[in-house]
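**Backbone description:**
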Amino acid sequence: MDFYTLNQKDVLKILKSGENTGLSLGEAKRRRSISGPNRLNENKKNNLFFKFISQFSDFMVIILLFAAAVSFFTAVIHGDNSDFLDPVIILVIIIINAIVGVIQEYKAEKSIAALKSMTPAETLVLRGGKKSRIPAAELVPGDIIILEAGDSVPADARILENISVQTDESALTGESAPVVKNGDIILPAKTLLGDRKNMLYMTSFVTYGKCTAVVTNTGMSTEVGRIAELLSLEETGATPLQKKLSKTGKLLGITALSVCFVIFILGIIQKVPPLEMFMLSISLAVAAMPEGLPAIVTIVLAIGVRRMAENNAVIRRLSAVETLGGATVICSDKTGTLTQNKMTVTDTYSSGNNTKNLFSLAVLCCNSSYDENHQNYIGDPTETAICRAAENVKIKKTEEDLKYTRLFELPFDSDRKLMTTIHRLSENKNRVITKGAPDVLLNKCVYYLRNGSPEVLTQSKRAEIIDANENMAKNALRVIAVAYKDASAGGFVGRGDPDAPRNLESGLIFCGLIGMLDPPRPEVIKAIQNCRTAGIKPVMVTGDHKITAMAIAEKIGVYNKGDKAATGSELDEMSDAQLLENIYFYSVFARVSPEHKMRIVKAFKSRGNIVAMTGDGVNDAPSLKASDMGCAMGKTGTDVARNASDMILADDNFSTIVEAVRQGRGIYDNIKKAVHFLLSSNFGEIMTIFAAFLLRLPSPLIAIHLLWVNFVTDSLPALALSSEKPDENIMRKPPLDSKKSLFSDGLGIRIILEGFMIGSLTLLAFTIGYKYFDANSSSNPIYARTMAFATLSISQLVHAYNMRSSKSVFKIGLFSNIRMNLAFIICLLLQISVVAVKPAAAIFKTVNLPAEGWLIVAALSVSPLVIIELQKFFSGE
């Protein structure tokens, strides 16, 4: 049905809906059962079987499968049933690893899906005569929706009534310029999509004005559904850290394969059976390769992101976690983010006895209304404060609205900094009311109201008003000016006139000023202190008056002695070079436009900073995208701002950003701990085998031992490190430097030294067992290998505790990480079982050790903790 060819009444008749009532709840439910959810089809995801098969595509797994095949065919040729154990065990471990991989991938998808569901798109709908917000997915054809600037269009709809509506349809038509809409026109059939001025389309958004529309098509029946322009959240790519790890993994892989090749040659020289050496070399290569790192990094990030979401910071991209840890500048809006967004009128200014007139005019130019219980005003905080204050002087908005019917509205926008409405006074007379920024509105006034009568606005009176405005602003009040003018009915321009702002907002009568206070959030002062301690510069970027902004900024610690503040007009006078040179001196930017925000972000970034920027409006989207970390408001933010952001603040609170930075740093630290642990452990395995061959000793470990150790130590302990709480001093350290190598600050040296430590302890266990327990069976040193096997595995489990902190583990609490304790107990029991349980011992070619053997293993396994604790003690940690 081409609804753009019909008038509003015919459209409502066809859809069986009422403009003033909408659909009934029952009818909406019935239609949803027919039309289905209002969403576009998602790409089909691979099922569990395909995910399982994909786990075998890893290069090292392919090598291991090849080794198992060679071992299997050799066993067939030799006819020895015991030779079948190695390929069977290898296959079992590969399958277990594949299952674990599928589970991890499934959990990661669930985490991402949960994050998406935390910020569902909602829309204001009229059902059963009542307005309510519902998820956009629940819309059905015939629903009456109410949209305003900043809202995404949730479905295709025919406009019923509109006030200066413009939409951005670039996602659908490719046309970048906003489209001016008009619901009163009727268009001919076959009108091109981009020329359908009386329609709204899914994936577009309202950039200006407000309107009421009736939904005509939903889901895959919409225009965007028909042309298959599927709209979804941006999929997460590899993070910078993951890219670093991938590059590191390739380097380590080549190194490991080279070392394993050398070991294979040494084994052949020592006349070790080629098949045995081949299996050992391949197993060692797999054990040495950090193939588990990418999955572990993804899981650590996903766990961290979920934890941050619980603290009101919803991360939309995993890479944002790393960006957070490196933030050096946070540019924050004032209202609702640094303050409570609970405006209260505390002061007024008017000439003569005009307070009631002032509030009567002001409430008429407000869009706030009572909630369903008629107890509280809902809407813009500034307007709700005006409406509440008006009731103190016996002015009720509901009564004023009934007396003076609104005929027309020019919505507020950040360029004009004004809002204007037209009301009917009588059959022959209308009134224009304008409210907004005092410095802008005063310039449009030629009279002022004194004792109910207009008088010429003289220079001295203008100066008096300016002084009153500045005095309020010095007390950190937000000041709203109110003015009006009267004219005969029909004397004003109507809908769609591009000259409406100029014609209406001129020649006005100034009525007064309303000053209100939005107190700082109590937790913000501490958050600002934490920012400075962490090497992060907090900057206030607001549309408020400069004096007001400075007063609040000084109160919360953003603006200090020696700092500078600049207005948007002052920025206009600066060249880019001047702004770049002096950017660090500024802590407050006031009366700024979206274009100014872009310049501020770019200036800080040009000086090498990682910039986080908050925003909530449509016009904030460019600066949110331009920043390194766009932070959209969850409560007051528009859909457009949220879609342009990297993080959504569910509580619109500046402190949430600072806490997210702390969590981001902690997550990055935990990832480095996992990398440190895995690589030092893997290096220890290589050193054990390599050193034994250099010393011409029998191999301390066989293939199945290395595979088992790799399976045990690469899973639970590494993941348990992700649950470590951020260090208490983490916000006293400088921001993360993304340019630094993963192995900077001595990490590479520590990995090598700790690998030598683990390898030496394992080799010592083997040597003791070889000398004292296998003296009569040197050709089959089963006791020595069992001791080496147990020491290697358990010492790595103990070593995981060393990774928990750079401080002594006893200072942070040896058993304070419950997941680490569980991982240790589970892995320890598994390791003991493959030695002490006879069927398992037969498979792993181990033997139950005597008491003194276990004591030696225990002593050597605990040694990493003792050695690292001593190192921490002498280094003052």
User: Anything to note?
Assistant: The CA atoms of residues 363 and 397 lie 6 Å apart. The mean pLDDT is 83.
